[in-house]
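Quick start: read one record
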Amino acid sequence: MNVLAYVLAVWWGMYWWKHLTVWTVQSFAFLTGYAIILFMMGSLLFPWEGGEGSATMPALWRNRRWFFAMLIAAHLIDIPETAAKQVDGLREVPAQYWVAAPAFLAIAAVGWATKRRGVHAVLAPAWLAVLVGYEGFSALDQIVAR
């Protein structure tokens, strides 16, 4: 569920790039790299050898360090990508982003560092709460600004 929420949030963030009139090879390569990391995250959760109907929890637990390393990489790529949208005049960076970005990174770092299932049981709801809070408050900020 959280991967779907993350992919949708990234898709919404990428939607702003439609307004960019001049594309460079560097911009294309950067955004393609971001998409590759998202694909790799999905592949770690749903490995090919699992087959239809196999549970994702064993795959996540087996690949947890790789998954959270990819999540950290995705969030680290998101920071310059978000800043680039502002530099290119596509979208202002919401003030809430500078609270949400470190929170996302901290959650991913804890997931990478710990094996405790009790901690992992809290990570997904915490990550989703940060995402919903960020999206909600930044959208509210945009509505009030108009």
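Residues 117-145 form the longest helix (29 residues).
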